[in-house]
Specification:
Layout (H helix, E strand, L loop, with lengths): L6 E2 L12 E3 L6 E2 L12 E3 L6 E2 L12 E3 L6 E2 L12 E3 L6 E2 L12 E3 L6 E2 L12 E3 L6 E2 L12 E3 L6 E2 L12 E3 L6 E2 L12 E3 L6 E2 L12 E3 L6 E2 L12 E3 L6 E2 L12 E3 L6 E2 L12
Parallel strand pairs: 1-3, 2-4, 3-5, 4-6, 6-8, 7-9, 9-11, 10-12, 13-15, 14-16, 15-17, 18-20, 19-21, 21-23, 22-24, 23-25
C-alpha cells in the first residue's frame, strides 16, 4: 500500500481472498466501514498510530485473522469491528480506547483472554457473545454496566469477579456460560436483568449482594448444578421461573424482606426438600413449586 494513502475507503478490500497480511502505512488516518470484511485469508495486520478511526465491520468475518496490533490513537472500537473473526486468538486493547461497540468481538470463538484497560468506560451489547474459548477477562474498573448478552455463550469462562464500579448486569449477560463455576458480586450492584445467568450448568453456589432488591425473571433458570443460594435481607421479590430447573437445589431460605414470589419460581427443582417462607409474603403465584416432588 503506497504511503500517499490517507484513507482506506468503505468496502475497499471487502471479499478479497488473496490478501494474507497487510501493513498499513503511517499516512493512513481512517479505515472505512467494511474495508477488509470477509478477507478470508488475512492472518495478520498492523494498524499504525496514525489511524484515529476504524469504521464498523472493518474486519468482520476475517476468519483466519489470528493477531492484530491496534493503534494507540484509536479511542473507539466500533460495532462488529471483529465480528466473526473466529481465528483471532489474542488482541491487545490500548489505553487510548474508551468505548467498545456492539458485537465488536462476537463469535471470536478462539479468543482465550482479553484485558480491557481502565480507559474503557462503555462496552456495547453482545460484545463478546459466543467467544467460546474465552477463559480469562480483566474488566476495566471504569465500567458501570455489564451490557445485554455481553458474555452470552462464553462456555470457557469459569469465574467472574465484578468490579466495585458495576451497578447493573444486563439481560442474558452470562446466559449459556456453561463452564461458569463461581461469581463474586460487589455490593454496588442494584440491578440484574432477566435470564442473566440462565443455563450456567456448572454454577454451584451463589451469594447475592446486599444491594439487590429484586430477583429478575429467569435469572438462574436451568442452572442445574446450583446447590445453594443465599439471599440478602433486602430482597423483596423473586421473579417468574427465576430458579426453574435448578435440579440440584435442596434447601432455600427466603428472607423476611420478601413479599412476592412469582409464577414457577422454583418449579422443577426436583431435589428441593426444604424451603423456609417468610411471614411477610403477600403474593404467591401459580406453580411456584410445581414438580418439586421431594418437597413435603
Amino acid at each position: 500500500m503506497p504511503h500517499s494513502v490517507t484513507i482506506i475507503a468503505n468496502n475497499a478490500f471487502q471479499g478479497q481472498k488473496r490478501i494474507k497480511s497487510i501493513v498499513i502505512p503511517n499516512s493512513v488516518i481512517h479505515i472505512g466501514k467494511c474495508a477488509f470484511k470477509r478477507c478470508s485469508r488475512l492472518t495478520s495486520i498492523i494498524i499504525p498510530d496514525s489511524v484515529i478511526n476504524i469504521g464498523k465491520e472493518a474486519f468482520k468475518e476475517c476468519v483466519n485473522l489470528r493477531s492484530i496490533l491496534i493503534s494507540d490513537s484509536i479511542t473507539h472500537i466500533g460495532d462488529s469491528t471483529f465480528n466473526g473473526c473466529s481465528g483471532l486468538k489474542s488482541i491487545e486493547i490500548p489505553e487510548s480506547v474508551t468505548t467498545i461497540g456492539e458485537y465488536a468481538f462476537y463469535k471470536c470463538s478462539r479468543l482465550t483472554s482479553i484485558v480491557i484497560p481502565d480507559s474503557v468506560t462503555s462496552i456495547g451489547n453482545v460484545a463478546f457473545q459466543g467467544c467460546a474459548e474465552l477463559s480469562s477477562i480483566s474488566i476495566s474498573s471504569s465500567i458501570t454496566s455489564i451490557a445485554k448478552n455481553m458474555f452470552r455463550d462464553c462456555s470457557g469462562l469459569e469465574n467472574f469477579i465484578f468490579a466495585d464500579s458495576v451497578t447493573s448486569i444486563g439481560n442474558g449477560a452470562f446466559q449459556g456460560c456453561s463452564g461458569l463455576t463461581s461469581l463474586t458480586f460487589s455490593d454496588s450492584i442494584t440491578n440484574i436483568g432477566y435470564s442473566a445467568f440462565s443455563d450456567c450448568f456448572e454454577l454451584e453456589s451463589v451469594t447475592l449482594p446486599d444491594s439487590l432488591t429484586n430477583i429478575s425473571d429467569l435469572m438462574f433458570y436451568n442452572c442445574s448444578g446450583l446447590t445453594s443460594i443465599e439471599f440478602p435481607e433486602t430482597i423483596t421479590c423473586i421473579g417468574a421461573e427465576a430458579f426453574r430447573y435448578c435440579t440440584d437445589l435442596e434447601t432455600v431460605i427466603i428472607p423476611e424482606s420478601c413479599h412476592s414470589i412469582l409464577e414457577s419460581a422454583f418449579s422443577k427443582c426436583s431435589e428441593l426438600t426444604s424451603i423456609v417462607l417468610p411471614s411477610s409474603l403477600t403474593r404467591l403465584s401459580d406453580g411456584i413449586f410445581q414438580g418439586c416432588s421431594k418437597l413435603t
